[in-house]
């Protein structure tokens, strides 16, 4: 399979094949299983700009429906992280006269609430109505739209130029990234910055985190690919900062061409990526091989535990669980249920594999022998919370192991 790059039109060959998949965050109700949407989840890297991308085009309207269940505030670690991001931007970039910050995909206002509390001019751009309402309840101003070049022009006309455009775990979701970059150029003031933090290709490769690939993640960024994309649209990558959140992310800072000097970190990270061959499609082929090994070992382990009469549950229903269970062919015969603290996911099932999602209280009463930790990026927080759990944890990242 070959397509042309969504950023630079260069050739993209499929390297990772995760099979036929439903939408990662669909979480249908048990009576909604008839018309499930499936597509081939194949991932490739552009030969020219090294951007890692999904080969299939999934209409964004099917993706961010009004019942979109993801809540950024669900983890206390995440809430604290984003309050910290807001405080830092207030201290470093939003210091001039009447500064203005725009957040793309403000979700439930987890970051902008701190900005709103500080009385600083802001606007969240958030197409999902339910989370937008949550943001508004925290005093955040929200424009219920998708961010693109046109929206950027309207915001500039209505509010003036932005000092900061921010996005977290959303920019890599947007398949029209080219329009977002053009929009950033339109909306930013002369010294403004576009700051975004997204799962990092280096972390995905290092941890064999193949479950980070699902329909919403149109791209997985690296310093090399973001620098190339920025250049194409008149922006410079002026800073990059590794983050521990979401199992390994990178925060990128773009500025208008020539406005700011790149930090030393940019050059250092580029050199490290070249050494780790993160700009080579062969790296994805190798990742595909390791994903196959995880698939084989995980299904073998669960099958043998079932044969031994052991009771296994799932813990956490992030979008990742959809990729893993559908890729491995794991259904209720191997994992009868998964618990998750998000009320809007409970009493629903994982798309495709149809594993029921229940409240954590069910898990605590059931006391299974093993729990597969699907929300592995929250391992510390979850294991601390479940310190009474007498069974054993099964992790499949970076390889299948029992704790
Ligand atoms: P997350 O990794 O935040 O998102 P994504 O869907 O992008 O992979 O998802 C973590 C899931 O784990 C989320 O549905 C909430 C759940 N969770 C718990 O059930 N208990 C917890 O203690 C934590 C931290 C998360
Ligand atoms: Zn490209």
TrEMBL record:
It holds the Pfam family Methyltransf_23. The keyword Coiled coil does not apply. Gene3D superfamilies: 6.10.250.3100, Methyltransferase, zinc-binding domain, NAD(P)-binding Rossmann-like Domain, Vaccinia Virus protein VP39. It comes from the Bacteria. GO terms for molecular function: methyltransferase activity. Keywords: Methyltransferase, Transferase. CDD domains: AdoMet_MTases. The keyword Magnesium does not apply. Residues 5-62 form the Methyltransferase putative zinc binding domain. GO terms for biological process: methylation. Residues 245-398 form the C-methyltransferase domain. This is Class I SAM-dependent methyltransferase. It comes from Sphaerisporangium album. The lineage of its organism: Bacteria, Bacillati, Actinomycetota, Actinomycetes, Streptosporangiales.
